[in-house]
Amino acid sequence: MTPARARSTVSSDSQINPERKPLAPAVEPILGSSEEGRTAGRKPQTPEVPDSQTHGVPDSRTSAVPDSRSYSDPKWTTLERKEARLRADQLTDLAELRRHVNSQRRDRSEIITDNTLIRVAVDLLLERSHRLRGDTEEDLRESVLPRRRPAAAPEENS
Question: How far apart are CA 118 and CA 120, in angstroms?
Answer without folding.
Answer: 5
